[in-house]
Amino acid sequence: MNYQIELRHFIYFLAVAEELHFRKAAEKLFISQPGLSTQIKQMEEILETQLFIRDKKKVQLTPAGKYLKGEVEFILNHLDQIKKQLKQIGKGDLGEIRIGFLGSAMQNVVPNLLLKLKEKYPLIHTSLEELSNRAQINAIMHDRLDLGFVRLSRVAKGLEIKPIYEDTFSLVIPADHPLEASSFKNIKQVKDEAFILFSQDYSPLYYDTVLSICEDGGFTPRVSHKSVHAQTIFKLVENKLGIAIVPTALQYGFQMDVKFIELKRIKQRAVLSMVWKQDHRNPALQNCLDLLLHI
To answer: Residue 46: helix, strand or coil by DSSP?
Structure first.
């Protein structure tokens, strides 16, 4: 057989893998359904591997198809980034850095980085996206992000992680709550309160750390609400629907009727880390990493 795998095969395959429906995939690609079926069959013959299980009711990916889907997503994302980098370099720019972050990183680390980049590398472009820890890791692995700011203790093989900022935790309570910083002794004083936490899916390390703070105080917190946004958590506290424990830096930038009591005497700290792919090929990212290591 003289056929060879071409880029169009990957594009056609990914459309079917995402839709799991040949007619919908064909409409998405603006080609005929028989033509698409022929291309997929040809691809399977070239690879000597079945990629889809087809019957009259549904289309499913085989194990080989599932593996290929992840690899093709990476390849196409990387090609798209290459095109963007080439276009910017051709215009005299130095490239682009795609940055993911948790909300708390925007209080100091990310703004400081952007200012440093603008000062030293004014032609480097940046794009920002607020994402959960898990979403950032997935995007970096699939080449949709170059750099992330996460609260994780470890990451998957192939990624690098380095602590970049350590913060204390603070108790967040309604402004008219009887407890004051001067009268605060330990976290056990709020053991009967309802707690509002960042979702465990959003930040597992934060969630577990807050539980450990309470457990060190001799109780398990009664969790009434969870959220992925600090503003939502503060609004719930303001409306006396519970109290919260957050990284201290989050108290800045919000104008709400709550007060913060810094938990200076506990051992736990809110550690923010930067994460990136070990074998990245973005020269602009290396400049960014060098800056971060010296901020």
So the answer is: helix
Residues 94-131, buried b or exposed e (16+ Cβ, 10 A)? bbbbbbbbbbbbbbebbeebeebbeeebeebbbeeebb
- List of E strands, the chain: 52-54, 59-61, 95-101, 124-130, 147-150, 159-167, 169-174, 194-198, 222-227, 244-247, 258-262, 270-277
Q: Which residue, chain included where needed, has tokens 């459309």?
A: 15
Report how far apart the first and last C-alpha atoms of the chain are (Å, whole number).
Answer: 57
Q: pLDDT by residue (tens digit) across 200-216?
A: 888 888 899 999 999 99
**Nearest alpha-carbon partner for 277 in 153, 144, 166, 165:** 144
Task: Extract the tokens encoding 139.
Answer: 């995007």
**Other beta carbons less than 10 A from residue 233's beta carbon:** 27
Q: Residue 125, Cα to own-chain centre: how many angstroms?
A: 20
pLDDT of residue 92: 47
Residue 184: how many CB atoms within 10 A of its CB?
17
Instruction: With a cut of 80, say whether residue 283 has pLDDT above it.
Output: no
Given a contact cutoff of 8 angstroms between Cβ atoms, the answer to whether 100 and 131 are in contact is yes
The secondary element (H helix, E strand) that includes residue 68 is helix 63-90
Domains of the chain, with CATH numbers?
7-72 (1.10.10.10), 93-165+272-292 (3.40.190.10), 169-268 (3.40.190.10)
Instruction: State residue 98 phi and psi, 5-degree precision.
Output: -100, 120
Alpha-carbon distances, residue 268 vs 26, 30, 280, 288 (angstroms): 54, 55, 33, 29
Q: What is the pTM of this model?
A: 0.67
